Amino acid sequence: MAENGNGAAGATSETAPPPIQAKIVSQYVKDLSFENPNVRKLISGKGDQPNIQVEVNVGAQRVENDLFESSIEFKATATNNLGTIYVIETVYAGLMKIESIPEESLEPFLLISGPTMVFPFLRRLVADVTREGGFPPLLLDPIDFASLYMRRQQQQQAEASKANA
């Protein structure tokens, strides 16, 4: 056993908070839509290179006691000179059991770590659906959910400042 300079045993293990325990209980597609509105135009001519606009948002909610849902709302719209090529919208979520987490750490955990854990499965879903829609698979780059969270916090603070001014 380690002792400090005055002969007393170290008490770090007795005073340290219990480690955070988190595990994914389930993950699932909450909502999914794929539209291919101009397939006839695309068959006769492919048109210009597509322009793909991507929108990502995250959300979280308590389901019960220590069970939480963390979700990613995703939308991609591909367009070119012929019009809309496709639109994919989905909400992909994970149900997580989280224990021993301080209340002030819960929101960042659910909006950063939760989406980070389920993102690879959303990425695969989006690639599979776009490929099955008859297009090259849309392969998403990794998303920095911490930056998204910080940006959201800054926007909320700016809005609160405007409201109070």
Structure report:
The chain is of the alpha+beta class. The protein has 4 helices and 4 strands. 18% of the residues are buried.
Tally of contiguous helical segments: 4
Task: Tell me, rounded to a whole number, the average pLDDT.
Answer: 89
| Overall spatial form | elongated
Strand elements, count: 4
Annotation keywords:
165 residues; alpha+beta; 4-stranded antiparallel β-sheet; 4 helices; disordered N terminus
Question: What's the helix and strand layout?
Answer:
Blueprint: H1 12-15, E1 21-35, H2 39-44, E2 51-64, E3 67-80, E4 83-99, H3 103-132, H4 145-164
Antiparallel strand pairs: 1-4, 2-3, 3-4
Summarize the structure.
With 165 residues, the chain is α+β, with helices and mostly antiparallel strands.
